[in-house]
Amino acid sequence: MLDTLAAIPDDRRLELARVLPAPRELVWTMFSDPYHLSRWWGPEGFTNLVIEMEFREGGRWHHVMRGPDGKDYPIDSVFIEVTPPERIVYRNAAADPEIFGDNPPPSFIRVITLTDIGNGRTRLTLDAYFDTAANKDAIIRRGFRQGTEQSLDKLAAHLLSLGGTK
Description:
Elements: H1 2-6, E1 13-20, H2 24-32, H3 34-40, E2 47-53, E3 60-66, E4 72-83, E5 87-92, H4 97-100, E6 108-118, E7 121-130, H5 133-141, H6 144-161
Antiparallel strand pairs: 1-7, 2-3, 3-4, 4-5, 5-6, 6-7
Helix pairs in contact: 2-3
């Protein structure tokens, strides 16, 4: 899988990174435990209900994000790789345009890598891989970068509430 993804050109790849104030094992728990995941996932103003989560290779992750306006956005994904405590690879299903409007999120692969950088901190790198450059452009227009940054802000705050380091 890694070799295949490495061959994807930059016009179909997007990377985000963040240093988080917690050890890698705790950050891993934030992704692997539905309780914690529901506390921080999604952009500012969104809540997240985890309906089903089989955190294993081939497992399903079905959740519903509720927007500030009360509208529900169901999202279905499949885990492609789960390598504790360092790597999660998953792909979302294409979104229903009747729910998401005229720019529904396309299906794409996300690779989350957690790297222990010492002193109780973890570097989270999220690489998103798209089937086409147009799909990457569509997700950028949807505000993916900003929404993900807001979600990571919420994750950092949640980690601090659990005793993470500053």
